[in-house]
Design a protein that fits this description.
alpha+beta; two-stranded antiparallel ribbon; 12 helices; 12 strands; 32% helix
């Protein structure tokens, strides 16, 4: 390729070289999950997205609901270097791919609730600059796909996970995710409807939708102490409001001095046990 070829083109061409399968169903969508109230630069992630008019990667926010290794030399950096033949190694954080999932089950909660209560539903045309892998890149997979060659849906559908939050096909969107042109909708948890975050959402250049919501009683979480540990049950009990937890209630706890990794585990409990089937 010419020396000035965009890094995303290099990455996609590399993955396309060993992806197998039939073209992706164009009715499927990528969802990019996040917590709107996650703190970032003295404000929130949703405010930062609204200010820029584009989605921010973990390399920019240094926050997330997965592993926090998105920095030069970190595990995420190394995985990307391996997957994308070093195309992003020397680039600024804003230029790196953004992570989401292929919502191949058409779940109203999105393709990978593990990573956030809310998500951006990406437009069809973004499929053409997205690569996919299964399972998560943390496992250094050797199964990849693109919009032109995609056998991962059948593969993922045949796997039964002990934890339903692990059931997703990872997506890597190359290039900017512009809210006005690349997003079909922002889908929020209804616990944010009458909050500051609902107001910010309505200021974005995309429609705002609401899924059915996550609500779980603390006693339900207490029935599963082995899921994320008894100390996480105790933390959940301490931040619950009248015995209940929602994404917005959890968000208020982020302003306190709790360990963010423990709050992440509380979210996993809400996501697993609090969705309305």
């Amino acid at each position: 390729m010419p020396i000035d070829t965009p890094p995303g083109h290099i990455a996609i061409a590399h993955v396309r070289g060993f992806a197998e399968g039939v073209p992706l169903d164009r009715a499927l969508r990528v969802t990019v999950h996040f917590h709107p109230d996650l703190p970032f630069n003295g404000a929130s992630t949703l405010e930062a997205i609204a200010d820029r008019g584009a989605y921010l990667s973990q390399f920019e926010t240094r926050t997330g609901n997965g592993g926090l290794t998105a920095h030069p030399g970190g595990a995420r950096w190394k995985w990307e270097s391996r997957m994308f033949v070093g195309a992003y190694d020397e680039l600024e954080p804003a230029e790196r791919p953004k992570y989401g999932s292929l919502n191949y089950r058409a779940d109203p909660y999105g393709g990978s609730p593990r990573f956030g209560s809310s998500y951006f539903l990406l437009a069809e045309h973004t499929l053409d600059r997205t690569t996919f892998c299964f399972p998560d890149s943390v496992f250094e997979p050797d199964l990849f796909g693109t919009a032109e060659a995609m056998n991962l849906v059948d593969t993922a559908a045949a796997v039964e996970f002990d934890d339903p939050l692990d059931d997703y096909i990872e997506a890597h969107v190359h290039g900017t995710i512009d809210i006005a042109s690349d997003v079909e909708a922002l889908v929020l948890d209804p616990s944010y409807r009458d909050t500051h975050f609902g107001e910010i959402a309505r200021s974005l250049a995309c429609p705002v939708l609401w899924h059915d919501g996550y609500t779980v009683g603390i006693e339900e979480i207490a029935h599963h102490p082995d899921y994320r540990g008894p100390h996480v049950v105790d933390l959940a009990r301490g931040i619950a409001d009248d015995g209940l937890l929602t994404p917005a209630i959890l968000g208020r706890a982020r302003s306190a001095s709790f360990d963010p990794q423990d709050l992440k585990k509380v979210w996993h409990c809400i996501a697993r046990y609090g969705a309305r089937a």
